[in-house]
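Input structure tokens:
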């Protein structure tokens, strides 16, 4: 057989296969699954959100199937199908210069640090809608927002502060404990005049917020807010109709609600902000219940057992300050 293969100039394995053509070739691995159903789900997802890549598409399909009791789907399979059918997004090739930023904007607990910023959306008729928002630096939820066709002023920012606190802690009554955060919350913003106004900073302290501003010409120090602006413009404003300011204002509620409840976030394990927040509350509750049921002979350290709640809160507050960005300027 080897002499014949060398004479013909072909591989010996090829001759062996041709000699056994009557024997069916057994396919290795699992049989290929039908793709029609998954392809339809992918097309339906990107029809609603054409700016989503394969990871976010997979996250939405996985979430939908979990809610409906369907089978799991692998992210690699979603990638392969989208690649075969030309549904992948083009790779980002931008090589813009990045400014150094050594601080950490994200925090590990909700209601520890909120960030805020403003941006504008241009309409087809030349009108502009200006928006300011509050974002939790842990769960990434857009807590509240204000919008106007004019300029954002200090009064708008004060309204934004009050509404944000009320959404998380109830009705704000200046000078009283109801409606105030149990611990002061850092309010991170740039140095725009609406944020640095004396009345704005005074109100912030009165309702339990600590105003913090970033260094001059350092947008990375408020990078989470900058990233949210990019997301809202890319995934919502640029793919939705914007004939005039009135139409944009009517759509803003839906855009923010979709972001909070559906939009998969990479830093949250491709869960939406409220999905992540719900899971975080559930885990915290389970830990609290477990701690309450811990037997007296549990092998805990004497220091942990003897620590008081006030000391724990002081340690927590100190850790928050140590975690704050080194570039943040305290008032």
């Amino acid at each position: 057989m080897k002499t014949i293969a060398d004479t013909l100039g072909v591989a010996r394995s090829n001759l062996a296969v041709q000699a056994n053509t009557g024997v069916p070739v057994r396919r290795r691995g699992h049989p290929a699954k039908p793709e029609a159903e998954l392809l339809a789900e992918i097309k339906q997802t990107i029809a609603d959100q054409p700016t989503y890549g394969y990871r976010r598409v997979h996250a939405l399909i996985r979430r939908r199937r979990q809610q409906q009791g369907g089978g799991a789907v692998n992210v690699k399979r979603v990638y392969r199908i989208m690649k075969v059918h030309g549904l992948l997004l083009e790779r980002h090739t931008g090589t813009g210069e990045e400014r150094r930023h050594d601080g950490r904007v994200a925090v590990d607990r909700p209601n520890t640090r909120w960030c805020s910023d403003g941006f504008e959306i241009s309409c087809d008729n030349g009108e502009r809608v200006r928006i300011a928002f509050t974002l939790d630096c842990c769960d990434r939820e857009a807590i509240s927002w204000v919008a106007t066709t004019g300029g954002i002023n200090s009064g708008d920012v004060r309204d934004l502060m009050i509404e944000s606190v009320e959404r998380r802690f109830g009705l704000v009554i200046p000078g009283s404990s109801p409606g105030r955060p149990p611990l002061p919350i850092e309010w991170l913003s740039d140095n725009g005049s609406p944020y640095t106004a004396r009345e704005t900073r005074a109100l912030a302290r009165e309702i339990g917020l600590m105003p913090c501003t970033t260094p001059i010409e350092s947008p990375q120090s408020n990078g989470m807010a900058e990233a949210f602006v990019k997301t809202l413009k890319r995934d919502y404003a640029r793919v939705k109709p914007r004939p005039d300011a009135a139409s944009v204002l009517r759509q803003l509620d839906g855009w923010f609600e979709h972001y909070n409840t559906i939009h998969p976030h990479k830093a949250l394990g491709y869960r939406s902000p409220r999905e992540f927040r719900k899971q975080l509350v559930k885990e915290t509750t389970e830990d609290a219940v477990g701690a309450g049921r811990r037997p007296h002979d549990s092998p805990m350290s004497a220091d942990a057992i003897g620590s008081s709640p006030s000391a724990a809160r002081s340690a927590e507050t100190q850790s928050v300050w140590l975690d704050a960005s080194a570039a943040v300027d305290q008032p």
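The longest strand covers residues 113-122. Confidence is low (pLDDT under 50) at residues 298-331.
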